[in-house]
Amino acid sequence: MKLNLLYLLALLFCPVYMATAQDKVNMKFGKPAKEEVQMTAYAAEPDAEAVVLCRLTEVEYSIQQTGYLVDYREKIRIKVLKPSGARYAKVVIPYLKNTPIDSRNNSSKLLLKVNATGNNSVSSSFDEQAGAMTTADLDRYSEESIEDLKATAYNLQGTKVVKSAMKKDAVAEKKIDEQHYQVEFTVPDVKEGTVIEYEYTLHSELFWLLHDWFAQYEIPVAYAKLDMNIPRYLLFDLEEHGIQRLISTCESGTMRYKLESDPLAAPTIVPSNHYICVGRNLAGVKKSDGVWSMQDNCAGITANLKHYSMRGAAVVDYTKTWEQIDEMVLESEDLGKQLSEHSPLAGELKEAKIAEIADQRERAEAVAKLVFNKVAWNGRYEMSPANTEETLKSQGGSNVDINMLLLQSLKDAGLTAAPVMLRMRNQGKLSVEFPAVQKYTTFIVAVVLPQGNLYLDASSTDGHFNALAEVLQAEKARLVLKDKKCQWVNLQQAAKK
To answer: From 8, 62, 165, 443, which residue has the greatest number of CB atoms within 10 Å?
Structure first.
């Protein structure tokens, strides 16, 4: 990955600035400091249109008889330094809803369907004696919500600071798809010189999923702090990202646990792991050629659940190898099961005598042409495919809806075809060192031939193999074949052939 020389020099000089500014962080929200209101430029990056003065993220778990809950409490203060920086008054907060175990477009359901105990029982409802989880209650633990949201603009008028609070009717909820939602709002009266403050709590029932936390933005960040207190019953693998590094610590802590079934009982003290990650004087990360996701360069933390237990019960290990994840994909209800079924186009394939075409590449091209003449891509990339009968009936669908129809049809034509699981490039790189099925965001089709694999996706509707959209050209993708013949493939190289 190439970075320009000026950017590298900026990183080298950041520690000098950090040493002089580390004691000047105002962590009290609701009243910006005089220096913040009067500030006209950010010394570390004089050309910055805005700067994040302070961001505090607190992640706190609570323990209930029915499982775990987690709250993300966010507080952010931004100084607008130029007229163009007023765009940071518009804020979008993503969150998840409607994610039961059988919902579509949810890669995490593959993880939830199989646990290390081998009994296929995973949920967030706990048995007090055994510590086991049951699938029956998972639906109840399937949503997030945005609560306690408030936003304020502070402007200096003469010698007086004028406060403009956002009204409740300025907040809108937007549905992206069945699982993904977002809250949108615009902080009022924001212009050059404004100090913006907003805070909210993301209340989550998805206890097994810690959201990624990135401390850097396009604009510089003077101070960012992540503070997580997690019960030791839940152990996560933490992975740090970015060129600039965070200062991270982990210490032993405690939490209070009160049994719901006995409200008069004294609370129990529960041991916890207390993580603190701090970033100071972080440079703004600009989008550059060849970098699809800014997060690839941003300092931050991602986490994957390693194992869990409850009140002294046996540990349930969630750590997976990529080989175990391959098996999970092949055994999943929506993806793996459909791979073993016949295509609803089997009759037309037989009538057209496509299976009799001797040249395997020509045969694959004939199958693709038949499928693309029947269904059209709706422009959406997803993870979980619909039933192929439904896709054919509706004459279209997402890329994976059509890709599943392609896979079935290719197999019915006597070809070896398999899904290639990947993380789209605009979602950030797939970290192969930390196996996790939820890191996948979609899959494409591979036709396995003696002379080399051919790759195709529904978004390549011209039917040309290896002509993948750039967003799908991942350097690391997982070809998932039965009988443990899975392998890593480079789709970037394949696209050049």
So the answer is: 443
How is residue 215 written in tokens?
């401390």
Angstrom distance (rounded) from CA 150 to CA 28: 15
Alpha carbon distance 29, 77 (integer Å): 8
Listing from the earlier edge strand, what are the strands of the sheet with 67-80? Answer: 160-165, 144-157, 195-204, 67-80, 50-64, 221-231, 268-282, 247-257
For residues 310 and 259, what is the distance between their CA atoms, to the nearest angstrom? 13
Q: Are 112 and 122 in contact (CB under 8 A)?
A: yes
Strand-pair partners of 78? 52, 196
CB 275 within 8 A of CB 214: no
Does the model's pTM come out above 0.90? no
The residues near 29 (Cβ < 8 Å, ≥ 6 apart) are: 75, 77, 197, 199
- Residues 284 and 217: beta-carbon distance below 8 Å: yes
CB 312 within 8 A of CB 131: yes
**Which tens digits make up the pLDDT trace of 365-421?**
999 999 999 999 999 999 889 999 999 999 999 999 999 999 999 999 999 999 999
